[in-house]
């Protein structure tokens, strides 16, 4: 048992997914080569509920103790209604997926470009790169 929390939701993500929904909920950016699972509360009702990163071999069990109109969404595609007492178990799949990138792909260069890392406010306002 880790802790109980009250929040509008909980994002469970892989490092590859850390720059999508998890980042928008103030979750960490995790290098895709790091074997981890991210747990990011969405609008937690206490400041002590913080994003957590655990090893990818962990089995995560989420129990819905109290809630109305709760549901499980899988990457915005599948939607499963949840009721009080329901449990969601998350674990790494037994099989792997190979993601292909162009030969010159650089994950952190892409983040610098998309997130404007290193840019001054003046350069962002002027639109020059």
Could you name the key traits of this structure?
129 residues; alpha+beta; two-stranded antiparallel sheet; 7 strands; 15% helix
Task: Explain what this protein looks like in three dimensions.
The protein is of the alpha+beta class. It is 15% helix and 28% strand. It is built from three helices and seven strands, in the order βαββββββαα. Strands 1-2-3 form a three-stranded antiparallel β-sheet, with no helix packed on it. A two-stranded antiparallel ribbon has the order 4-7. A two-stranded antiparallel sheet has the order 5-6. Strand 5 (71-74) and strand 6 form a beta hairpin.
Provide a brief overview of the structure.
The protein is an alpha+beta fold and 129 residues long.
CA-based gyration radius: 17 Å
- The backbone outline, from C-alpha atoms, is globular
Count of separate DSSP helical elements: 3
Strand residue content: 25-35%
Going across the biggest sheet, name each strand in turn. Answer: 1-2-3
Structural class: alpha+beta
Q: Note the run of SSEs as H and E.
A: EHEEEEEEHH
Q: Residue ranges: pLDDT <50 for 5 or more in a row? A: none
- Mean pLDDT, all residues: 89
- Euclidean distance between termini CA atoms: 47 Å
Largest beta-sheet characterization:
3 strands, antiparallel
Count all strands and give the number.
Answer: 7
Classify the helix fraction into a percent range: 10-25%
What is the element layout, followed by pairings?
Elements lengths: L6 E7 L7 H4 L11 E9 L7 E4 L4 E4 L7 E4 L3 E4 L5 E4 L16 H9 L5 H6 L3
Antiparallel strand pairs: 1-2, 2-3, 4-7, 5-6
């Amino acid at each position: 048992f880790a802790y109980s929390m009250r929040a509008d939701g909980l994002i469970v993500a892989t490092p590859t997914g850390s720059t999508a929904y998890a980042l928008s909920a103030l979750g960490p950016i995790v290098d895709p080569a790091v074997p981890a699972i991210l747990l990011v509360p969405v609008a937690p009702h206490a400041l002590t509920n913080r994003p957590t990163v655990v090893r990818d071999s962990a089995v995560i069990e989420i129990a819905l103790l109290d809630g109305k109109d709760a549901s499980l969404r899988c990457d915005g595609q599948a939607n499963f209604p949840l009721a009080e007492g329901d449990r969601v178990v998350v674990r790494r799949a037994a099989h792997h997926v190979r993601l292909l990138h162009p030969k010159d792909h650089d994950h952190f260069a892409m983040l610098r470009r998309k997130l404007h890392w290193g840019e001054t406010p003046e350069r962002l306002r002027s639109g020059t790169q």
